[in-house]
Each structure stands twice: as C-alpha cells, then as structure tokens.
Amino acid sequence: MIRHKKFFIRYLFFVIFLLGFFIFSDQVNANELRYVLVTQDTILYDEISEQQVVVGKLVKDQVFIIVSEDESYYYIEFGNHTAYFVKSHGVVINEGPTNHEIQPNSNTVIITQRPVTVFQNIGDEAGFALLGRNMRYPVIEKVGDYYRINIGGRTGYISAKPNFVKQDHGVPVLMYHHMVENKDLQLWAGNQMVIAVEQFQEQIAYLAKNGYRTIKLSELEAYLNHEANLTGNTVVLTFDDGYLSVYQYAVPILRKYGYHAVNFAIGIRIRQAAEPWDPYSLQYMGLKEMNEAGDVLEHQHHTYMMHLRVRETNNPFMIEFDESAIIADLELGKIQINKSSAVQDVSEVKYLAYPWGQYDHEAISASITAGISMAFTTEPGYVQLGMEKMKLPRQGIAQSHPLHYFIKKIEGTF
C-alpha cells in the first residue's frame, strides 16, 4: 500500500512537471514573437521567377508579426509563404496586433483581379493591408460575401465579389510533343500531338501579350510545398520525348519572349549531337542541342528506356517491370541527362513525366526512391495546393485546338 502511494506521488510530481514545462514553453514561444509597427504606408515585395514583384501594401500604424529579417528587410507571412518590406518603414515594438490568431489556410486559392483591401472586421470602412493585383492567395474560409485570410500574423477579410477576386482552378501545366511547319502538317494529320509551328507561335504570343509568366518546375514544387507565392497569370510549358523540332522551332520562339520550358528527355535517345535536321521524320536532341538550349529549356526525366510497351500485353514497361528495374532505369537516365552542360548536378534531375502518363503504386515508389520529387501524368486537370506531387495533371495541346481552346486551357475553364 505504501509502495503504491509513493508511486502515485512520484507520478503526480511528474505530471505537474510536464504541465509546467509546456506552459512555460508556450510563454517562451509567445515572448519570442517579434512585432513591427509600420510607420508609413509601405510596399510589400516578393521574389517570383527571380524578379522582385510588388505583391501588396501595408497601412501606416498597423502592427504585424515578423517571421524573419535580413540587413534590409522585414519578412511577414503573406499568402502561400512570405513577403518583405524595407526596414526603414517599420519599428520593432513589444505589443502585438489585436487580431493575432493562428488559423490554417485551406487549399482553396483565389486570384486577385485588382488591388484588394484587407479589413480587420467585415463592415470596416478602412483596411490594414492591401493585396496586389494578379496574386494567387490561399484563404482560410468563405464567410458570406467575404474570404477570411491570413496576412502578417493577423486574420482579415477581403471581398469575394467577382470584380475583386476569382477562384483559382490551379496552375496549368501544358503538354507539347512534336511540331512542324504548317505546310507539312497534313503529313501528321492522324497524330493530334503534332502541332504547327505557327500555332505554337500564336499561343506564345498570346501568353506574352496577356502578361503570363512561365515558371520552372522547382518554382511549382516550392509553391506546392508552401514555400513560394505565384502570380495569377502563371503557366508551365512542357515538351515530352526530347524531339529535335523543339530545338529547331520552339526554342527560338521561347527565347524571343524570354520564356522558359521543360524538356522531358528519353535518356537512351540522347547522343552527342542530333542527326542533320529532317522535317519529315522524328528526331531527338543530342547533348549539343541540349547544351545550346539550356538558357530556355530545363532538361528533366522521361525515363531512360522505359518509353516502350511489352509486346504481349501492350502495357508500358513502367507498369510491367518491377521496382528495382524502374529504379535502375531512372538512375541511368539521370546520369545521361546530367551529361548536358545545361544540368549542373545530377540531383537537379528530379522531375519525371511518366511514359504515356501511365503509372502504378510500384512505379511511384520506385520513382521516389530514385530521387524523383514530382511527377506528371497525361490526365487532364490543373495543379492545385494539396495535390499528390507524384500524380500531377497536365493539359495536352493538340493540332485541332484553335486559339480560343488554348485560352480556355490556360484560364482553367476548358
């Protein structure tokens, strides 16, 4: 009996110790928060596609929570990551904002159509911050005619009216293959994945005219990891198979507009250099062409030699082969792609387009083991926050798609 009492007393002291530890830890964490008072209306910036972009504004005499700082800037929570403003426009204080709450964002994202005021309460006449135009912004929830959002360690409300914001359907990842000049298109009439150069030129010109950014896959991955913000007019351009026509036709067009695209190359097809150009056959870029296009194209994985089908079943190799074979193939392909001087390190080859877009659980497991962190299918759709990164959809671009179809695909209304 005495032994049980001693055990109970020790247990009680242990529980009290734990409670005191957690309470003390919470107080320490609360005390560690640092607050900044904005001393004048100040612009918020973020680095998007290696450019400084104005993403919003903070209102004079408002208080926000600092998440980090460097010599020149204070950083605050903003959208899917952070934004920053110049230190001379703020002063560190001891007291925090009155509406400081920790509320997780949902995976619902809006795109601002104009500068949008952030109010502390619904019905307020003046706001405490402003979201810039054409920004993707995750929300906590919809409350009547408003969205509730996080910004700078505070919660606020923005109008949900369509002239202020629209719902984001996701980032369009466009899928291209081969292209020929319009005069030769009839030779490929039975293959919708072959488009006319003139068609591609028209599409890229439309993107440029309407202010679209083409982003790298690392930027898309950072966005999905909640480590980056993206603007509304954003698109990813991908080319499957590594065809020489991409180097011949697409690269000069992309270079003209300062755009970026992804070359998903089949490793076994990569030689030192391509064969002499022949517009009437399928040819593949060699290392020479990959090197020369490195300012426009990032070179990623379409397997080494698994872009084939088993004769008896017609199933892709990636479905029929076991995990160890897939891993070996992907490792070999990474080495081959890394032979291009445009790829600085083999670790950069970490994105995959499944051959014919087909995969299974074993293919996904093998890809992850081989260092693939994001993979694309041919299933139609748009890339959204919360999606499984090894099953990302794309929008195929076909020769039968006129420009208004293309517009619907990039706007998420196709």
Keywords:
414 residues, alpha/beta, six-stranded parallel β-sheet, 26 strands, disordered N terminus
Structural features, described:
This protein has 414 residues and is α/β, with parallel strands linked by helices. It is built from nine helices and 26 strands. The chain has helices spanning 2-32, 197-209, 217-224, 244-257, 287-292, 317-320, 323-337, 361-369, 403-411, and strands at residues 34-38, 42-48, 51-58, 63-66, 68-69, 73-78, 81-86, 90-93, 109-112, 116-118, 129-131, 136-138, 141-143, 146-151, 154-159, 165-167, 173-176, 178-180, 194-196, 213-214, 234-241, 261-265, 297-301, 351-353, 374-376, 395-396. The strands form eight sheets. Strands 17, 20, 21, 22, 23 and 26 form a six-stranded parallel sheet that branches. A four-stranded antiparallel sheet has the order 2-3-11-10, with no helix packed on it. It is elongated.
